[in-house]
Amino acid sequence: MTNKLKYFIGNWKVFGDFGSLKIIYQIHRFYVKFKKRHIVKNKIILCVPSTLIYFFTKKFKSKFISIGAQNCHHQKMYGSFTGSLSASMLKKVGAKYIILGHSENRSEGDTNRLIKQKIKSALDQKLNVIFCIGETIAEKKEGKTFSVLKKQMRDSIDKKYNSNNIFIAYEPIWSIGTGKIPKVQELKKIFKFIKGEFKKNFKTRSFPIVLYGGSVNDKNIRMFSSISEIDGFLIGGASQSSKKFIDIIKNYYR
Ligand code: 13P
User: Fold this and answer.
1) If you measure from the C-alpha of residue 176 to the centroid of ligand 1, how many angstroms do you get, rounded to a whole number?
2) Cα–Cα nearest to 136, from 107, 156, 112
3) What is the pLDDT of residue 198?
4) Is any ligand 1 atom within 6 A of the Cβ of residue 235?
5) What pTM did the predictor assign?
6) φ/ψ (deg, to 5) at 42
7) Which among 115, 111, 201, 113 has a CA at the least distance from the CA of 159?
């Protein structure tokens, strides 16, 4: 069993309403008991729809669970951007973290350049950024995984940014919601590469926190737990159920 700090981060995507507060209670209840039995360091973050951030953070105070957002507009404060939310607005309603560069947002037009501006505005608001990178199946087949990841990082993180508050989430696009996951050896190489590239190119105290995302569930989590380079997980579908999310944590440390 590892004693390194591990992150279990849920990305609820378009899911949840006020009644979903019970999911957070259930995870919290489990976690309080879990912490009594296990001396392990970990952190739970739930990135929920913007409509729920204020409600959850006001209704529920937990030192174990933090609430995050899933995207923001690239402008810092206010402006004529109908339907958008700025990083400062999300921060004010209680978000501590924010997912940026998710492939689902990239597929709707988020470019590396736009993501760079979003990262800047989020960092300026002292939000912790969970920056998603990952290759398509075609890029993987063409052997371009490393060059794609390198470009995504270099084009979206400015050397001047305070990179200590940036987590990288490696999410191969072909793995999201498909049940397909990379092989252990592939993941080890990719994680070493991401950490090395990041440390070499950006202003940071140490190696970055690098998460894996894509079809993580309570069955395959044991396989991931054998890879020490992985600092945590960005979990989509399975984070929308307290049972599945709890089973992922339980099985990780089994
Ligand atoms: P799934 O876990 O549903 O594959 O989604 C992963 C994801 O997109 C997390 O950001």
Assistant:
1) 5
2) 107
3) 92
4) yes
5) 0.97
6) -155, 165
7) 201
Where does residue 166 rank: exposed (0-12), middle (13-18), buried (19+ CB within 10 A)? buried
The residue nearest atom 2 of ligand 1, judged by CA position, is: 236
Q: Two tokens at 55?
A: 């409600």
Instruction: Quote the DSSP letter at residue 91.
Output: H
**E strand or H helix at 210, and its extent?**
strand 210-213
Looking at residue 39, its pLDDT comes to: 79
The mean of the pLDDT values for the chain is 95
**Which residue has 């879990």 as its token pair?**
34
CA 42 – CA 44 distance, rounded (Å): 7
Task: Write out pLDDT tens, residues 58-75.
Answer: 998 888 899 999 999 998
Among residues 241, 126, 249, 149, which one has the least CA distance to residue 201?
Answer: 149
- The answer to whether residues 181 and 227 touch, using CB atoms and an 8 Å cutoff, is no
Tokens representing 235 are 């979990």
Do residues 172 and 138 make contact, with C-beta atoms less than 8 angstroms apart? no
For the Cβ of 216 lying below 6 angstroms from any atom of ligand 1, the answer is: yes
Structure tokens at 181: 């996951």
Dist CA 114 CA 76 (whole Å)? 13
8 alpha carbon – ligand 1 mean position (Å): 12
The best mutation among 11, 71, 248 to test binding of ligand 1, ranked by most ligand atoms within 8 Å of the C-beta, falls on 11
Can you list the alpha helix ranges (DSSP code H) found in 7-70?
21-37, 50-59
Cβ proximity of 206 and 185 under 8 Å: no
C-alpha distances out from residue 52 to 15, 44, 69, 170, 188, Å: 10, 17, 9, 26, 36
